[in-house]
């Protein structure tokens, strides 16, 4: 790599004469510091040239590690790993000296003998045939190149001028006073380019021979030393025979020089020259997230990259931060738990392979810290999509995203899915925060005519007094009846939660979701969130979200109300091994513990666990509680027509969200809706086992029953009379759509739900008489027992709602938790966004 262009002119002779005097007077030169800012060449005299060489470390590889220290991948612009001189074979050290600067240990940065020899040879040849740059001067040029801040500075470093050469000499002589020969040689071997994307001797040793530089043999060291002069021209992997012969000849020349310098014997040289050139390069180390190993770690890696590019400590913008990652030599320990990741991907692959139309993915987060533990999905993280399977949308001709994709399917981008009834949690939290207790009771019909306007006549709409209203239905008629938060959440009763969001307001539910970390991923959702008053369907999960957001939202509840920003990193160390303080969990209280534990009590119902303060009455995923052998809470969710299926849940130790959806075609039905909840449960059970289960704190009494008051008897009153009496008592009144047999005159009140007592200020539903005689098996004077034991609407333990008879499709076997029947190995489509 020596500079071979000393000018063949009188000016060149003048420089040589000057150098002769400088070398003789070298001992008189003042000591200089090898730090500070470099200045451009061009001083009027040699003495005025700067000596404070600005040395910026060359680009180094950053390492991304899992929580247990396992390497995930690397990030680098240049494949370089610094290595100490004592870890480099002495043969390699001798080979590079023999090839580039045989008097390295004798001169003081500038080899006067070499300058004169080059001057004479070049003048005799009439062209440049020899260079005179020492290893020190070559290192200076490399250091200046890496220290250049602008394109102009980079060009100035390599321009063929006497001024540039003089500056290089000045720096080299100063450098020799600051560093030992071994330090200069070590720096040179770590900065030199050896071709085939190999920067530094460590990378070169692995690229050409797949071994550590300490283990290099004579013929191998000689080849690497031969490459630095012209790595592009001397490529041993070239298919061109002339090129391969040229590098072979140069390698053998280096070996002969080592004999001349008495580094090796003639016998050793003869054996070395008989060795063939390497035939193919070793694959370069992984780079970027597509190089993650195993590849399903790539989705976590991609989320880490998004996190890194948001950190202001690493640069002014995302581009600068990424450049620093690729050049800075960081060691980043992430929160990825390899054990949990492997368990999760194994459970996923038991149900859906990587070619499946539907993505089945899971994100797990640690409550109280926000550490992201797992991001797993049945896809290959790769940008090679040429041979992917066909797109599932009938409107797209070409490959889809299976099995290979780099789309952020699990979070961190705007790829998202409707999450169905998992959003009911936000409405329940808003209600509890407003002081509404878990025993808040609504009569929940199969279809409910809400107060929210609807702009269309779709399946979730109906006409009320000539106006289209939002009128959702339950997924099963057996769900209708008197419901509390326990039973409404446990059975996923849509019409209960639409009434609840009417009372809490959509704005409160939307604000709660935002407080727990949800963001809006398309203009429609953003507009609805900005103007939420009519967004009644929000409680049924019609907004787009991601598994990462949902996992972290439920993790907030699991921590007792502490929201922590999702964090994929445990520690960052710089190139010198010093920690960088940018990775502390960022947490704030967004819920009181009372609200969090009250919501948790209801959230134990959907999974078949037992609430501590009330009666669940049903569950949509009872197998979760059976599989996870510890207190657990969560919620299932399916979207309209089962185009996505979710489960979001938590224990005290871990929270996570699992989903099934087609990322390419949102109208594609998912098939089994149980895969999400079963993957979640099996992974949590295998990871946590049965050691040290922690129970959830019980909800406070203030958020359990509330204050109950008597309901005035309005039987056989007109609607107007009954409404006036009930409103005067502080209740709110609604009239049921259906009428029923009663001895009361047609159109008057046959009965109310609840019947005897209700929460102060609660809703009372009027059931009107149709004037028909009561069948003999029905006693119209018997109040509906509701969810309590025997007569009365109390929220205490008891059987299914209604008259005490087992509703169709329910399991009411004595001694078991009442709930919808379903073979856990078959579909149980028990809750739907329905609009």
Unreliable stretches: 1-17, 19-46, 783-835
Strand content: 5-15%
Strand order of the largest sheet: 5-4-19-18-17
**Mean of all residue-level pLDDT scores:** 86
Helix content: 25-40%
Class by SSE composition: alpha+beta
Distance between the termini: 70 Å
- How many strands, which pairing sense, and closed or not: the largest β-sheet? 5 strands, antiparallel
Rounded to the nearest angstrom, the radius of gyration is 38 Å
General form: elongated
Task: Describe this protein's structure.
- The chain is elongated, with a radius of gyration of 38 Å.
- 51% of the residues are buried.
- The model is unreliable at 1-17, 19-46 and 783-835 (pLDDT under 50).
- Helix 1 (10-24) packs antiparallel against helix 3, helix 2 (90-100) packs parallel to helix 9 (218-227) and helix 4 (135-147) crosses helix 6 (162-178).
- It has 835 residues and is α+β, with helices and mostly antiparallel strands.
Layout of SSEs?
Blueprint: H1 10-24, E1 62-65, E2 71-75, H2 90-100, H3 112-125, H4 135-147, H5 151-158, H6 162-178, H7 181-191, H8 200-209, H9 218-227, H10 241-260, H11 266-273, H12 298-308, H13 318-327, E3 331-334, H14 338-349, E4 359-365, E5 372-377, E6 380-381, E7 404-405, E8 417-418, H15 424-433, E9 442-444, E10 461-464, E11 467-470, E12 481-483, H16 485-491, H17 494-504, H18 506-515, H19 523-530, E13 544-545, H20 547-558, E14 562-564, E15 569-573, E16 587-589, H21 593-603, H22 622-627, E17 633-638, E18 644-650, E19 655-661, H23 675-688, E20 708-710, H24 719-728, E21 732-740, E22 749-753, E23 757-759, E24 763-769, E25 810-811, E26 819-820
Parallel strand pairs: 1-3, 6-7, 21-24
Antiparallel strand pairs: 1-2, 3-15, 4-5, 4-19, 8-13, 9-12, 10-11, 14-16, 17-18, 18-19, 20-23, 22-24, 25-26
Helix pairs in contact: 1-3, 2-9, 2-10, 4-5, 4-6, 4-7, 9-10, 10-11, 14-23, 15-17, 15-18, 15-21
